[in-house]
Design a protein that fits this description.
425 residues; alpha+beta; globular; binds protoporphyrin IX containing FE
Length: 425
């Protein structure tokens, strides 16, 4: 068993598994985290809402107000999401404290990574293959049960799509085995959004990875995992696999072990669920993105050393053709389809709901990701956050609740460090 765990971990490390947890290469000792055993943080702590306990495993009441401060001098208040038992959500033990701790560990890792004073990139997915202009058009034949929020019949929006590699190490060539990201930002979407600090932003984001399930659904394992993952030694390696479990480690290995020939030729998944609709019509759904057949199928040239292979591939495609990606949804149709456990697949039919078309004449992607280029800089300054969302598309499940605290904090942190204004387009 131990041998199997070690082999799995080696696959994880060699395949640059990261999301937010950073890579095996980043080694930090316990001493680095001062005497407390916890990393330093610009967050001052998270206050539970009056009357709400964060350790009882009980659902929180709607509109409770827990305070999660941001990284800047002025703490920014955000409300820890209230789980919706009607959609299968349940608050876990110590979620708010765990979310804050995850933010702190990431913050500490970023401070270590960028201690030379260079530009702070995203902790996860720093390597973009570009931001692309798209038209999001809801399918005229969308089934009525899916036609809510931005998927209302006849809806159309302009959008930005950011393709990325998952590894926290943005210097790794695109072609390296890794998970791939596709982040979509719809523009000019009216209505109040769920992220309090950007409630009036006109954006609706959807975030995808190139695997159908997420390796962790117990946030207490997540912190144990990142703590072990960033420290040296066999004991920590085994601790990492113990934190993920065999199933989680296998998912992570599968997810991060692929090289791809083009970002517009693979499928992407939301991995975690989202609400669809409000009131009596609400349901829980998962999303996926499929490439249009017209995007074609290419192969990776043998032995390619191209450092920006996926970027170049996209640019070559748009020199000649448009591209499109299809947006699909599946519904949670019974209680065995867990909203909280993101390691489990849902078995229910998928329906096509919209198409994203990227027109060749609208693309302006630079040949390298050099942030000195204003187009790359604009792309890097964007923040994709599942909580940039209308109530009709509320993110569900523990991983999404935690992301509300972490994404907001880390995005503010990097903008702050780069002395840039964090602003939705
Ligand atoms: C608790 C779980 C997770 C944590 C703590 C986490 C953390 C992060 C962080 C800190 C960032 C950078 C945000 C920024 O600086 O703007 C990020 C980006 C990203 N994450 Fe996660 N993540 C989690 C789960 C997921 C899941 C389930 C997915 C699956 C779709 C995902 C996909 C992505 C993608 C695609 C990006 C890059 C978005 C972009 O292009 O800007 N993450 N994540």
């Amino acid at each position: 068993m131990q041998r199997k765990q070690f082999v799995l971990l080696s696959v994880l490390c060699s395949s640059t598994f990261s999301f937010s947890f950073s890579a095996c290469a980043k080694k930090k000792t316990n001493e680095d985290y001062s005497g407390s055993g916890r990393p330093p943080s610009s967050q001052t702590g998270v206050e539970p809402a009056p009357g709400q306990s964060d350790s009882g495993g009980k659902p929180a009441t709607p509109d409770n107000g827990e305070t999660a401060p941001g990284p800047t001098k002025e703490p920014i208040k955000l409300t820890y999401p209230a789980p919706d038992p009607e959609l299968g959500e349940a608050l876990g033990k110590d979620e708010v404290a765990i979310a804050t701790e995850i933010s702190s560990v990431i913050e500490s890792q970023l401070a270590d990574l960028y201690k030379g004073g260079q530009r702070y990139f995203r902790d996860a997915h720093p390597r973009a293959h570009g931001c692309f202009h798209a038209d999001f058009v809801v399918d005229p034949a969308i089934p009525a049960e899916f036609a809510h929020g931005v998927f209302a019949k006849d809806s159309k929006y302009k959008a930005i799509i950011r393709f990325s590699n998952a590894s926290h190490d943005g210097t790794v060539p695109d072609i390296t085995p890794d998970a791939r990201g596709m982040a979509i930002k719809l523009l000019d979407v009216p209505g109040k959004k769920l992220l309090e600090s950007e409630a009036d932003a006109k954006t609706q984001d959807f975030i995808f990875l190139s695997h159908h399930v997420f390796p962790i659904s117990d946030p207490s394992k997540y912190t144990a995992f990142i703590k072990h993952f960033t420290q040296p030694g066999l004991a920590n390696q085994l601790g990492t696999v113990q934190a993920l479990g065999i199933k989680g480690a296998a998912i992570a290995a599968a997810m991060t072990s692929k090289s791809i020939s083009s970002s517009i030729e693979i499928e992407y998944f939301s991995m975690v669920p989202y609400q669809l609709g409000v009131g009596a019509d609400k349901s829980a759904v998962r999303y996926s993105i499929k490439p249009c057949l017209s995007n074609g199928k290419s192969t990776i040239p043998k032995g390619t050393k191209e450092p920006y292979y996926l970027r170049t591939r996209l640019n070559q495609h748009f020199e000649k053709s448009d591209a499109c990606m299809e947006f699909w949804m599946q519904k949670r149709t019974n209680d065995s389809m867990s909203v909280e456990d993101s390691t489990n697949d849902w078995k229910s039919p998928w329906s096509k709901v919209a198409t994203l078309t990227m027109k060749k004449e609208e693309q302006d992607n630079p040949a390298t990701p050099d942030p000195a280029n204003p187009i790359n800089l604009a792309c890097d300054k964007l923040s994709f956050n599942p909580w940039h969302a209308l109530p009709e598309h509320k993110p569900l499940g523990v991983m999404n609740r935690i992301r509300k605290v972490v994404y907001d904090h880390i995005s503010k942190l990097r903008h702050d460090k780069n002395k840039e204004v964090k602003k939705e387009p």
